[in-house]
Amino acid sequence: MRPHGRDALASLYFEYPIFDDHALPWDTGYSYYRGKKILEFQMPDSANEKFRPMYNLQQQYIEQFLYQCVEKNPFIEMRWRSELMQINKDTDTVHLDIKDPLRSYTIACDWVVAADGARSTTRRLCGHRLNGENYEGRYVIADVQMDHDFLTIRRALFDPKSRPGGTVLIHKQPHNIWRIDYQLGPEENAQDAIAETSVRQSVAAVLADIGYAGTWDLEWWSIYSANTLLLDDYRDGRIFFAGDSAHNVPIFGVRGLNNGIADGFNIGWKLAYFLTDKADIDILDSYTPERRGATLDVFANATKSTRFMTPPTQGWQVMRDAALSLALTDTRFGKLANPRQMTPYTYAQSPLTHKDDATFTAGPKSGAVFLDAPYADGYLCDALSGSYSLIYFGQTPPDDQDWCNVLKADPHSTLGDLYDAQNGTAYLIRPDLHIAGRWKHFDKTRFDASLAKAALR
Ligand SMILES: Cc1cc2nc3c(=O)[nH]c(=O)nc-3n(C[C@H](O)[C@H](O)[C@H](O)COP(=O)(O)OP(=O)(O)OC[C@H]3O[C@@H](n4cnc5c(N)ncnc54)[C@H](O)[C@@H]3O)c2cc1C
User: Fold this and answer.
1) Among 85, 244, 258, 306, which residue has the most ligand 1 atoms within 8 Å of its CB, making it the best to mutate?
2) Whose CA is nearest to atom 20 of ligand 1?
């Protein structure tokens, strides 16, 4: 597991700041064609924000930290070695047949979030299928332990000596582990390619390409190909699909786990608001359009990267190679050789998003993810607490409500500038850090149950 976006990390940070201590931040990428650098890109970043644009962190740490977090939560009971065997649905309840090493039993559930992965049993038992495309290109992915002093910069090698005609991606992970992804040629047999001796030979060739001559060890390896597959609906009555059970996204969008975390955060706060009577049941209808929309957005971006990284036809290959050759002498073409990073999706069309106020000339739009900035003695993300928050720019903010906490901010501050604020401007931020609405001249008398209803309708 490698790159995670600022938004995903910020959502985890609410519960578990240790993520930030372990992960390696990065904002720079280099692309090379036949050994020559053709692109050096920098992701937008600023000292105003607590988190860097991207972080590399192995998935096992994320799972460990999530588990430690779950363990501390008195409302969650973890049952290991328990397998879902059958589902029976009636109008008000979902009955799950569970088998563990000691017994079989049934749990009656009001609501189910099915996060049971790409081969989801829940999806199969409910009779749903993922629809979309499988891509041809196959990649071997290898984790290598080595004391390599290169900075945490993502490297993409096109047509390197180690993989003529193919591509290679290299990322630094915590604890001196380097992740190397290399493309297999059409003539290479997958079984042979993942034999340990072949992987060692291929890794050695890549390391020679990047000029590393020290010792190294092979930690782990696997093989994958890119898919853009998703469910038509992320909800089946009282069951919500989240993560890989709802979608398989290509690796080049680095959005698999990132997207799954956003799914979980999205349905998590909505169920909590509904179950504690802070929102009515319609709030649950916004889950599919928001999260399926986000997946389709990832597909749109990742498909472009996938075609560039692993051209699907001879025609794409010719165009890709032409662009790379031109990039040797013209930097404008180098921009094409950037395996795209993930960007957070804007819920502009969501039923929970207020129409954007067109009088703003800057700041995060309605539906977009919030923008971090210095606030009080820390950062805005520290002040957002997991419920709805209203940032009011001015001296006399409205009173706190039970559904929302109110933050007073100075319009003449960095935060005010970034949010294009003046006296009386307000931004309403959802628990998952997306902007529910913004008003240049906020009408405080509207900040009551009617706004709550509108926000949560
Ligand atoms: C090689 C590789 C590299 C990747 N790199 C990245 C990356 O850089 N960035 C990124 O964001 N994503 C990446 N991903 C994707 C990421 O790993 C997945 O998107 C993520 O693991 C999905 O999480 P999930 O919880 O939905 O499913 P999973 O992690 O698959 O978890 C599903 C869980 O459900 C359990 N389960 C399954 N069936 C049952 C059943 N019948 N009963 C009970 N439990 C069941 C399984 O045991 C498992 O614990 C990568 C994936 C691969 C394969």
Assistant:
1) 244
2) 257
- Position in ligand 1 atom list of the atom nearest CA 222: 1
Task: Give Cα 296 to chain centroid, integer Å.
Answer: 13
Instruction: Inform me whether the pLDDT recorded for 60 exceeds 80.
Output: yes
Q: Which domain holds residue 444?
A: 374-456
Give the residue-averaged pLDDT of 334-345.
69
Is residue 387 domain-resident? yes
Mean pLDDT of the chain: 88
Q: What is the pLDDT of residues 139-179, one digit of tens each?
A: 999 999 999 999 999 999 999 999 998 899 999 999 999 99
pLDDT in tens, 122-136: 999 999 999 998 776
Strand partners, 138: 225
Element (H, E) at 392: strand 388-393
- CA-wise closest residue to 365 among 446, 292, 437: 437
Copy the structure tokens of residue 345: 């999706």
| Residue 302 pLDDT | 72
Contacts of 257 (CB under 8 A, 6+ apart): 1, 4, 8, 59, 62, 243
Within a domain: residue 60?
A: no
Residue 443 resides in a domain: yes
Q: Rounded to whole angstroms, how far apart are CA atoms 209 and 205? A: 6
The least confident of 43-52, 85-94, 444-453 is 444-453
Q: What phi and psi, each to the nearest 5 degrees, are found at residue 207? A: -65, -35
Q: Give the Cα separation of 16 and 61 in Å (integer).
A: 12
Least confident of 304-308, 318-322, 374-378: 304-308
**Ligand 1 center from residue 118 Cα (angstroms):** 7
User: Is 51 exposed, middle or buried, given 0-12, 13-18 or 19+ CB atoms closer than 10 A?
Assistant: buried
Ligand 1 atom with the shortest distance to the CA of 244: 26
Say if residues 404 and 389 touch (Cβ distance below 8 Å): yes
Q: Give 119 Cα–ligand 1 centroid separation in angstroms.
A: 9
Tokens 């036809």 belong to which residue?
Answer: 313
228/251 Cα distance (integer angstroms): 10
Residue 93 lies in a domain: no
Q: How far is residue 266's CA from residue 48's CA, in Å, rounded to a whole number?
A: 26
User: CATH code at 437?
Assistant: 3.40.30.120
**Going by CA atoms, what residue is nearest to atom 34 of ligand 1?**
116
pLDDT given for residue 53 in this prediction: 86
Cα(294) to centroid of ligand 1, in Å? 18
- Split into its structural domains, the chain has a count of 1
Sign for the pseudo-dihedral over CA of 411, 417, 419, 420: positive
Ligand 1: which atom is nearest the Cα of residue 258?
A: 11
